[in-house]
């Protein structure tokens, strides 16, 4: 095959480039022919030069034509491989949506804002004073064991509850106080109903002594739970928290079985949903408050969300499972 035939048959751009070097490069017959011109007989020079130029032009034109063919074939192959059929999926009705945890959180916050509570924020990395000591949980107090704390190297902890915001708020302002504090909290726990990071909404109301009673606490929590869950019974059960006295845990009638008894309520007919109580005098002492009374409560947002939306395994809410999440659109 002569060069023009080889060029026309070159299978790839690389192969074509090798042919170009061979046919027109410094060591090619054409280049050597030009170099030898000076030794040619004077009367022959013009003829030889014209022939060399003709060959050079013929080869250059053939290479250019072949290159165009190969480049367009390469583009077509790439386009075919990377093609996206934009008519295939219809995204027009697939708007995003709030994650069920955010949705529950928003609903809780909205309720209490409507009841004239003010929104507060507090740090996630906390010192032991705000997370424990000021909340009547001195060092070595056995109740600290109730909360499996993540300790940081410099005496700080990841807050184990949103109750630290009670302390920040009371130190920063004078009563009356009516605040809620939603946010992430952290405990060393992982099973069907516990994840190492979860969310709480804290509530605190403080006013002059005698102005706030347990009846006020009971009323607002019952009203909240009825608005959040609908028409389920609510009960207050005596309990213990170091920062409240008296303390109670609040249950709602099992939303899974209608209080008949099932696996979810461990056959009790009740589901625990939050903790609360009257602020312990030692907490007021720690923040320098005198002649006041108040109540506090704390609820787990994931707990409320899994019950409201009937999600069996809390961990599934953290797995970005689209089959689950798409049900909340
Ligand atoms: N901090 C408690 C907990 O995390 C909840 C709570 C808050 C209880 C306020 C009483 C009053 O379990």
Q: Overview of this structure, please?
A:
Helices cover 40% and strands 20% of the residues. With 329 residues, the protein is α+β, with helices and mostly antiparallel strands. The protein has two domains: 3-83; 100-124 and 159-328, BirA Bifunctional Protein, domain 2 (2-Layer Sandwich), CATH 3.30.930. The strands form two sheets. Strands 1-4-5-9-8-7-6 form a seven-stranded mixed sheet, sandwiched between helices. A two-stranded antiparallel sheet has the order 2-3. Strand 6 and strand 7 (244-253) form a beta hairpin. The radius of gyration is 39 Å and the shape is elongated. The model has no long low-confidence stretch (mean pLDDT 92).
Strand content: 15-25%
| Element string (H = helix, E = strand) | HHHHHEEHEHEEHEEEHEHH
Distance between the termini: 69 Å
Ligands in the model, by name, code or SMILES, are: phenylalanine
Q: Give the tally of β-strands.
A: 9
CATH superfamily of the largest domain: Bira Bifunctional Protein, Domain 2
Helix content: 25-40%
Structural class: alpha+beta
Q: State mean pLDDT (0 to 100 scale).
A: 92
Q: Can you tell me the residue ranges where pLDDT is under 50 for at least 5 consecutive residues?
A: none
Q: In angstroms, what is the radius of gyration?
A: 39 Å
Envelope shape = elongated
Largest sheet data: 7 strands, mixed
CATH class of the largest domain: Alpha Beta
